[in-house]
Amino acid sequence: MAIAKAERLMNLALCLLGTRRPLSKRELRGSIEAYLEAGSDDSFNRMFERDKDDLRELGLVIETVENLDGEVGYLARRDSNRLPPITLDAEEAAALGLAAKVWQQARLAGAASGALQKLRAAGLPEDVDPYGSHGALEPHIPVHEAAFEPLMLACRDRRPVVFDYRKANAAHPGTRHVEPWALECWRGHWYLAGWDRDRGAERVFRLSRITGKVRARAGKYTAEVPDVVTVRETVAGWAGEIADRSALIRLRSGAGYPLRAKAVSVRELGDGWDELEIPYGHGLDAWLVEFGPDVVVVEPAELRADVVDRLRAVAKG
Fold first, then answer.
1. What is the pTM of this model?
2. Are 201 and 187 in contact (CB under 8 A)?
3. CB of 207 within 8 A of CB of 195?
4. What string of DSSP letters covers 135-165?
5. Calpha distance 110→202 (Å, rounded)
6. Interacting residues of 198 by C-beta distance below 8 A, sequence separation 6+
7. Helix (H) or strand (E) holding 280
8. Are 211 and 173 in contact (CB under 8 A)?
9. In angstroms, what CA-CA distances link 7 with 4, 46, 97, 120?
10. pLDDT at position 139, please?
11. Backbone region of residue 195 per phi and psi (left: phi > 0; alpha: psi in -120 to 50; beta: other values)
């Protein structure tokens, strides 16, 4: 079956590349043996549409042209399917290899591998091994959230989505209608930036707090997508990374190492507790709640109140 499909795709590609004028479906069906053997028009149409999509996925630029009689034809112009010579030095090839190896899930790993194969076909030197080992460490980007793949596809295709989202201080999730812009991994967590239709403003969502399935919706975006989506800067601001003051907290000894790494000063109190001065910015209360009973806020009073409110909301849930 695989050989038959490969032969069919090759014949279709040769027909589209070899013609000087657009070929209609009728003409293509009469020129390719596998299409002649199709049992019905519906069977042929499904086969042709799949083959056309597969060729485009492989990188072939197929044009759809309508003639004066309203008949649709297809062709692949040679000048549109010709790449200039690809010249990569060892460092650039190593970077491509690293990008291909960094993704661990099958869908993106296959896409990265396919991209490198296309570069080989376009002239990547055979003596350059982009998959070669260039260090003792092999980084990877973990993706555990089920929401990642549907959101990645929605960002790519510019499709609005709907999902249930549980805020850190909420006992139950709420429904969000979002126009997704971009995904980014920050401090081991994935975040989505997009336009929240219900709130009429840009929002950033942590994927681990999305519950249930992500559902795609039809229709166009209502808000303009920024030229540069600053997911990391937005998340940093909400997570307290952009701070203009300090907070004083008590932290159980041997716990809260991320907090200790951010601390301006640390003082041992005894009885298994330390006192830390840490930068205080918007969203710090949500982060402190994650450490549960290992953290006690001393000051400022508003931060302490926010943490207590969040803990009470979690307890009610």
1. 0.46
2. no
3. no
4. SS----B----TTHHHHHHHHHHT--EEEEE
5. 32
6. 176, 177
7. strand 273-280
8. yes
9. 5, 17, 30, 21
10. 55
11. beta
Q: List the structure tokens of 188.
A: 């081991």
Looking only at the bridges linking them, the beta strands covering 72-75 and 210-216 are: unpaired
273-280 β-sheet, strand order? 265-270, 273-280, 245-252, 295-299
Stated as kind and residue range, the H or E segment containing 286 is helix 284-289
Strand arrangement of the beta sheet that strand 210-216 belongs to: 201-206, 189-196, 174-186, 161-165, 210-216
Please compute Rg for the chain using Cα positions: 27
Widest CA span in the chain: 88
Starting at the edge strand found earlier in the chain, the sheet holding 63-66 runs 23-24, 72-75, 63-66
**Alpha carbons 129 and 151: distance in angstroms, whole number:** 32
CB-neighbour burial class of residue 57 (10 A; exposed 0-12, middle 13-18, buried 19+): exposed
pLDDT value, residue 97: 62
Q: Classify each residue of 215-239 as buried b or exposed e, where b means 16 or more C-beta atoms within 10 Å of its C-beta.
A: eeeeeeeeeeeeeebebbebbbbbb
Coil/strand/helix, residue 242: coil
d(CA 259, CA 278): 7
Give, in degrees to the nearest 5, the angle at Cα 241 between 238 and 247.
100
Residues of the chain with pLDDT under 70: 1-3, 83-143, 168-170, 187-188, 228-243, 282, 317
Structure-block tokens of residue 268: 């041992």
pLDDT value at position 134? Answer: 46
- The answer to whether 288 and 296 have CB atoms below 8 angstroms apart is no
